[in-house]
Design a protein that fits this description.
Helix content is 42%, strand content 16%. By secondary structure, it is an alpha/beta fold. Helix 10 links the parallel strand 10 and strand 11. It is globular and about 95 Å long. The two termini are 51 Å apart.
């Protein structure tokens, strides 16, 4: 194991629990691994797969995450590929062939792919050494991000009865843990590895503020280093980033509506510390492994603690002190309650959206199963004069009920193949001199265009031969229409897949029992988030209790433990404890928990409040390892 880890990643040792999980997989056990965000989940399936003959089949829900992992593996000279909705058929066919007959070690599939007859037939021919399920909580109705397509995974196990399965997730309650094993058809000998969700270096802080923006600004001025600010919608990402820039903080915004190129540029600038603060929707963060994030701020109450825990956990992955801050006001609770009501539309609205989808894509009744389409929800809603927010919720119901699947935005470069002989192509060049330079440049720059569909960078090509981008695309389209090449333009859209045959809208049905279950669960999630924000209990304890870690110790670093809920401390008491603390640490820096232990447990709150006052007034300094220094 260590040889493989050292060879490909350069590490001398595994992180806690990784080696035990890997050994379980190598022993042939179905295994569930619960590791916190940044805990190194990918290593747990990549190492054992590389140690054995055959292909590791990885099921992952996010196209961006799949592409990122494939790219990282390829950089390490590990053959990895991905297939997902929106790819050209020929490219899918070639990728499957490489997984069956070539040297591919990792094949990433979106769960929607498993419903395809083509996919199932090709999987049967593969030598699969491990079945890895990323974001495994998506299979559970008890989870916060249920995806019906995950339920297809258990079906394929009959073709690989001796192949072990490794399911991975960062967040799962006990009910979800049980559900994952049941829905994935775990066999006897199954093992569950769960690392504590406790993050000793992450301080959880909650503030109820009338002016959340000003409080956010104060925090970012006080806490140095890079950070993430999460907001509820795309419009606010731009507004908050502009506000921060005006205040002298290098900030940018990020959301799923931006093009792939723009998102990549912004992410790279933030990763390389050219941008200090990224203001984003929840589209930012998945698959990003920046270790030195010092602060993660949520400007709105989350609608689930699972999502909040995962997003907050992107801070402090280097083990140094970091802060997870939640800011809320009186309007947040009302917003969550309103969203709850809107999230569960009635059947009339759901059928209206479903009928519009059929018309929009010109699908005949009884057809469409497995069809994938580029989908712009804004254009769709405007075409049929639908409320966009209500349309979003109706689409989510259709997704949860298994009628459709929706993917994130997917960037696919343009592809082309020359489908005439070299002699015929030369004749075409002579006949169309304006296209001669373009054809010669393609043949020189991209090898193999007569044999395979090659990927081309249209913008780069247009710039190189000095013609407008639109003119280039028109020229390529002309050549395709005239039978010289096969050409698929570059595209970047979310994909909508019909997972069942289209039925008349009046015959559309949903499982009312499951619908009501999801409605109740969503309401419970909201109440748990509100309780977290308003309860006068250690924030870390609250989160750990939610994930069934009972009797966890107080963290000593959250706003509750530091007594910020009640700042009133008599001056006499403050001066008394200040002198005691000075005696303890002057010339002798001491870790926070150790310092508190030196005083009677009955005086813990007074000591924590005094420390908080002293920190605010510059008498003390605390470093990344929670060690307190006297500054005087």
């Amino acid at each position: 194991m260590l040889k493989t880890l050292k060879k490909y990643w350069g590490y001398d040792a595994f992180r806690p629990m990784q080696d035990e999980i890997i050994q379980s997989v190598l022993d042939g056990n179905d295994t569930l691994a619960l590791l916190p965000t940044g805990g190194g989940k990918s290593i747990c399936f990549q190492v054992p797969a590389l140690m054995q003959e055959g292909v590791c089949l990885v099921i992952s829900p996010l196209i961006a995450l799949m592409k990122d992992q494939v790219q990282n593996l390829n950089k390490r000279n590990i053959p990895a590929v991905a297939i997902y909705s929106g790819m050209h058929y020929r490219e899918i066919d070639r990728t499957f062939d490489n997984a069956i007959y070539g040297n591919t070690k990792f094949l990433y599939l979106s769960p929607e792919r498993l419903a395809s007859d083509l996919t199932r037939e090709r999987i049967k021919k593969m030598n699969i050494n491990l079945l890895a399920i990323d974001e495994a909580h998506c299979i559970s109705q008890w989870g916060y991000d249920f995806r019906p397509s995950y339920l297809n995974i258990a079906d394929i196990r009959e073709w690989m009865p001796d192949t072990p399965m490794l399911a991975l997730t960062a967040t799962a309650t006990p009910k979800v843990v049980e559900d994952i094993q049941e829905k994935l058809a775990f066999r006897k000998g199954k093992k569950v590895f769960q690392k504590s969700f406790a993050r000793d270096n992450l301080s959880y802080v909650v503030f109820k503020e009338e002016s959340k923006q000003e409080k956010m600004l104060h925090i970012l001025q006080k806490v140095k280093g890079t950070g993430i600010v999460y907001v509820r919608n795309r419009r606010k990402t731009k507004e908050i980033a502009l506000f921060l820039r005006k205040k002298g903080i290098a900030a940018d915004f990020y959301h799923a509506g931006l093009s792939s190129d723009i998102r990549s540029q912004k992410q790279e600038a933030w990763t390389n510390n050219k941008i200090r603060i990224m203001v984003s929707t929840n589209a930012f963060g998945m698959g990003i492994d920046k270790p030195d994030v010092r602060v993660v701020i949520h400007l709105d109450l989350p609608d689930s603690l699972e999502a909040y825990f995962q997003e907050a956990g992107r801070g402090g992955r280097d083990g140094k002190r970091a802060y997870a801050v939640l800011l809320y006001d009186n309007l947040d609770k009302n917003y969550l309650e309103k969203t709850y009501e809107q999230s569960f539309p009635d059947m009339t609205e759901i059928r209206q959206v479903y009928r519009a989808l059929g018309s929009y894509f010109q699908l005949a009744t009884g057809g469409g199963k497995g069809n994938s389409y580029a989908f712009d929800i804004v254009e769709f809603a405007q075409t049929y004069k639908l409320d966009i927010l209500q349309t979003h919720h109706c689409l989510k119901v259709l997704k949860n009920e298994g009628w459709i699947a929706l993917t994130d935005s997917v960037f696919e470069p343009a592809t082309l193949k020359v489908i005439v002989t070299q002699e015929d192509l030369y004749k075409y060049q002579v006949k169309h001199p304006k296209l001669d330079n373009l054809i010669r440049t393609i043949l020189r720059t991209y090898q193999g265009s007569f044999a395979n569909h090659i990927k081309i960078n249209e913008k780069q090509l247009a710039k190189f031969i000095r013609i407008p981008y639109d003119v280039l695309k028109n020229n390529l389209s002309q050549m395709a229409q005239e039978g010289i090449i096969e050409y698929v333009p570059q595209r970047e859209d979310p994909q909508l897949i019909f997972t069942r045959e289209r039925v008349p809208a009046e015959n559309l049905s949903i499982n009312s029992e499951l619908y009501n279950f999801r409605k109740k669960r969503y309401h419970n999630n909201i109440q748990a988030a509100i309780h977290y924000a308003t309860a006068a209990q250690c924030r870390s304890q609250l989160l750990l209790e939610y994930f069934a870690e009972k009797n966890a110790p107080k963290c000593g670093t959250c706003d509750v433990c530091l007594g910020r809920l009640d700042k009133k401390l008599p001056e006499k008491d403050y001066n008394f404890y200040k002198n005691k603390i000075q005696i303890q640490i002057q010339g002798n820096p001491t870790e926070m928990k150790e310092l508190v232990k030196r005083f009677p447990s009955t005086k813990e709150q007074q000591i924590l409040k005094t420390i908080d006052y002293m920190l605010d007034n510059g008498l003390l300094r605390i470093d990344e390892d929670n060690v307190i220094y006297w500054k005087g």
